[in-house]
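Pasting two entries for a bug report.
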Amino acid sequence: MELRLEGLTVLTEVGSGAFVTTPLIAALGGAEMVFAVTRSSNYGSAEEVINYGLEWADRLGVADRIVFSSKPAEYFAASSQIVTNLAHVRPISNALIAALPKEAVIALMWEPWEFRPSDLDLNACQANDVLVLATRETDGRVQTFGYVGALAAKLLFESGIEVVGSSVGVVGSDPFGASIESLLSRMGCSVDRLRLGPGKYSDLDKEFGPRVESLDALVVVEHRRDEELVGFKGGINPHRLLISNTRLVHICGNVDYSGLERCLVFPPSSKGVKVGFMTVTTGYLGPRPVIDLHTAGLKGAEVAVRARRAGRGSAAALKAAISTGLALELNLSNLDSHNVQAKNASGVGLSP
């Protein structure tokens, strides 16, 4: 992706596992300085994560250009031209945005339809003329949705499902649902897509319940809608999973875990995940999906910042970033929590 961050400062997170890589990518890409913030979580204490980051930075020879810190992200905003929206940087508040330099760009490490209002104050971005870029996950250098299919397969294997010759239901909107259906089918799995119709539904159990009882596993991967998918308030009745010994594999989507104590749920950690968040990301497969995606996000932001430094306005900077094939526009004028519109390089609207 030819990332060239010389002369730029990046504000991002340092996390555990594959999420240690983002500040390392920025430093290896030539950034003058990288501020990598973290905080304690279920994945480790802030001290443990910082020590993990320092170990890798030393091994890669970039420790002199990364500041690892448990201070709030706002503390470093005034010196940062590129800000990522990763977990320990969020929420990106009005205070952080107002402190950014004029040429700053916020890089979202996902596509526009994945937007959550709680992550980012878009009104403050607009008021302060801070450009916000999403990342084009369908670019051949990124292939996020291909990884989503592999993620489902890995979770199925871990749940004891052989995939080959198995019967698996998939409930989830595209592109996640289509990616999983395609890969599992090519692996020799019989896939039953439980497709949600338009608008609200009142009784998912009546529509899909009997089909679920014939499945070896049910993969829940709904990322656009917040209605209950498995539960007692319109979702598939958990009792059906129990009596048929159907495994529940949860990637994202609204599930009522109160009725699933005796059911086989994978991964077990999913029981603590809020609606709108993924149980595990594609980083669960290994570091490559995270490295590819985050490098792409940084590249789009790099191009936009340099355009703004050259005196070009937001529209021209946006166009320059989109021309890389790695960036997408977040169209603020048509935005609400369920309706985000983006434009790709050809100007075609992408909507949820």
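Entry 2 (this is the one that rendered wrong in the viewer):
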Amino acid sequence: MTNSISNGRPGEFELIRNFFAPLSGNIAGAFGLTDDVAVLTAPEGHDIVVKTDAIVEGVHFHRSDPPGTIAKKALRVNISDFAAKGARPGAWLLALALPDWPDTSWFERFVRGLAEDQEVFAVALAGGDTVRTSGMLTIVVTMTGFVPDGAVIRRAGAAAGDIVYVTGTIGDAGGGFDLIQASARRHTAWQEELISRYLIPRPRLAFGQALRGLASAALDVSDGLIADLGHLADVSRVRVEIAAESIPLSPALRQLYGDDLASIMRAATAGDDYEIAFTAPPAKSSAIAKAALQTKTDVTAVGRVVAGAGAVMLDAQGREVTFIHKGYTHF
């Protein structure tokens, strides 16, 4: 890319110097984003954790979304994975594939959203790349962070007899997406709450760190509760059974969808929740309740781990529910 301004948009080097370099903060090894690499070190006694997520216009966000919320979603979908691993995020890298339409005003609001979340989550930008594209705006964040040696909470580790838990409520982001798709110009307060859950994920970072030594397995819920628990079951080589009536739905989502079995199924497969689904032995239940209280996190027991394979939902009579799709798939 050139270093000139065209169509009201900064050139590559102006973009880096004026918009993104200030986000490098006090990371000495970021060199103010003036070099080709960053040099990062892990605190003594910690493992380095690395995660990459991409969000794409028309798939994960709309061009009409506020630039600040797009920025925060790009960061938070990565931070949500750190939460589920019991890790603490630190430095991050940003790669942008830019079409022609983002202008200076858009970048100002985008960077403002990044700066606000850097303050919230104590992270800083360490580098990245910008390229031009004739396609959709694509934002790729690679995040690094730390966890005490050997303490990362993996997907593998669930065992028969474990309880299955989930934080927060399920399906809100899917409801918010449906409301946006409906294109209504005005929304009630409860509708705005659902839309907010779609636009800006709420990573359970403090609770995730409190789960170290308590959870046997965990992951964040991005593709849908049933689909993601299926991933956990596969790598743990167990069967996860979820009671439909135990899945936590918010009052706002109940108002939108209702609370019958079809509504619960819809919520459990919608995706974009960015809650933590995890398993733990029954002996850890008191400690989990204490961690939830200390971090002000709602946590619900939704099922159990048994011998077998896959993740299933059971209705009130204990019958397995049949799904056409268990969650979002990228391909």
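Dev reply: Rendering is fixed now. As a check, the viewer should reflect this: The first helix runs from residue 12 to 20.
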